[in-house]
What we know:
It is a single chain. The chain is of the alpha+beta class. The protein folds into two domains: 2-79, no CATH class; 86-169, no CATH class. The chain is 26% helix and 32% strand. It is built from three helices and ten strands, in the order αααββββββββββ. It has a five-stranded mixed sheet, covered by helices on one side. Strand 5 and strand 6 (131-132) form a beta hairpin. Helix 1 (2-19) packs parallel to helix 3 (64-75). The longest helix is centred in the first third of the chain and has 18 residues, at 2-19. The radius of gyration is 17 Å and the shape is elongated. The N and C termini lie far apart (42 Å). 32% of the residues are buried.
Amino acid sequence: MDYQTARYAAACARWYAVSGDESYKEKAYRSLNWVTYCNDSLGMAFESPVSKGILSWWSDCYGECPRMFYHAFAAVPEWAPPGENHILYSEGILKEVKYYDSKVEYTTTADSGTEYLRLNFKPVKVVLNGSEIVRRDNSDGNTYILRRLGKGDYAVTIKHSKSCKVEISG
């Protein structure tokens, strides 16, 4: 049940991100919290809080459940750790990821994609393969969307139409 609940939470979080309906944000938050009761202090996962001690080698809770948290963090970046730089979710595989004080770099492998980040600095320049891209409120083409989270943190969504090296600097 933990994986199904985490998947439900991720769907609620994504719907909140699209619709702004606060009730779905609350559902996502409560569901993700419930899922944390399905693990013990050593990281052993259980299907539900009442199934502790039952070996479940067949369960998908080890791989699928934690992955759903990334979907939720992409939708609600306020929940990711504050004051730190994080790639919250990527639609494709990323390589050569480097974090600096006021800079994040990575290389995408997919022909097109979207990355969601939480940064502890305000980006002043986003570069794809050496070319600076513009900030827009929509997400058409090679663009980025910036949203202030407070206390110096920002949520950044980067969209690109080909594989590229991405450099975000503040």
